[in-house]
Amino acid sequence: MNELVTGDAVVLGLRPARLPSRALATAIDLAVLLTVYVVLSVGLAVATVTLDEAATAAVGVATFLLVLVGGPVAVETLTHGRSLGKLACGLRVVRDDGGPIRFRHALVRGAMGVVEILGTFGVVGCISSLVSARGRRLGDVFAGTLVVRERVPAGRALTVPPPPPWLVGRFAQLDLSGVPDGLWLAVRQYLTRMNHLDGAVRGAMAERLSTDLAARTGVPVPQGVPAAAYLAAVVHERQVRDFRRVASAVGRSHPTPGVPAPGPLPQPVTGNREASGGPRSTEVRPGGAVVPVATADAGRNGAVAPPATGFAPPA
Predict the structure, then answer these.
(1) What's the mean pLDDT in 90-114?
(2) Long-range contacts, stretch 120-128, CB < 8 angstroms, 24+ apart
(3) CA–CA separation, 116 and 126 (whole Å)
(4) How far apart are the C-alpha atoms of 299 and 248, rounded to whole Å?
(5) CB of 233 closer than 8 Å to CB of 170
(6) Which region, left, alpha or beta, applies to residue 302 given φ > 0 means left and ψ of -120 to 50 means alpha?
(7) pLDDT band at 53; cut points 50, 70, 90
(8) How confident is the model at residue 157 (pLDDT cuts 50, 70, 90)?
(9) DSSP per residue over 150-166, as a string?
(10) Rounded to an integer, what distance in angstroms lies between the CA atom of residue 127 and that of residue 71?
(11) Would you say 88 and 28 are in contact if contact means Cβ atoms under 8 Å apart?
(12) Rounded distance, CA 18 to CA 131, Å?
């Protein structure tokens, strides 16, 4: 694993491509380019049969430069470093800082490729790739590029170590809503890799992360609690809360079979059957207005139903 530091001080873990995979990708690209070059040369030879020798030679040189030099440059520029061979082998050309390449990078690589691959049948390219610590050929050195592996075999997932038993549940009342996702990610990465760090670096990183986490939660780190143990306990508390939240959501969306769903809440009972949905009668008044009138049951209850509309009936 090769570590590249970007301008934003972000460490990128990239796997440089080695000679076997690069040689296979180059062979695939050369096979495609030579096939296109031969077919195009035959077609142009038939089309320019009436031209003189100088014109025929000029067409041949232009075809060579267009296909075997311009072709790889155009493909790597348009695909950001993924030719057909590199795509088949899971490789990509990137800058030294891990960013995508541009036209000038592809142009330098293509121009140097004519010398170290086509001119020497790949001998110079193989030697320079074997000598380089990151497997770079001369074109990569002059262009400031690197060929990396995109398809990396998945390794064993790293898990966050559990906190000490005496810290489990101690931060149940801690407010974690103000902690950003970037800080959570940094804490998790530290906890999963702290055993591979130097002792001084491990302690300094734990102190810095615990200080940032305490500032976000508003509660200082308890006295006598190591910084790494504090980080593990807080991350464990967040995992417990996330698990409870997911379990609660799943329980609401998938109720237990055989348990009836709760019905609607009962309506309050009033002293008037009309207010609780009882029978009601209406009367047509002059002018065509329809208004409710009290029924016998409502009269017995000592209440008169209000009008259906918000207006009082005419006298």
Answers:
(1) 89
(2) 122/23, 122/26, 125/26, 126/19, 126/23
(3) 9
(4) 50
(5) yes
(6) left
(7) confident
(8) low
(9) S-----PPP-PPPPPGG
(10) 25
(11) yes
(12) 11
Sequence-distant contacts of 131-137: CB under 8 A, at least 24 apart? 134/2, 134/16, 135/16, 135/17, 135/18, 135/19, 135/22, 136/16, 137/112
Mean pLDDT (whole number) for 18-24: 90
Distance CA 101, CA 108 (A): 11
The answer to whether the beta carbons of residues 91 and 146 sit under 8 Å apart is: no
> What is the pLDDT confidence band of residue 268, given thresholds at 50, 70 and 90?
very low
Report pTM: 0.48
3-state helix, strand, coil in the chain (%, to 5): 50, 10, 40
Tokens, residue 282: 């209406």
CB 180 within 8 A of CB 216: yes
From first CA to last CA, the distance across the chain in angstroms is: 94
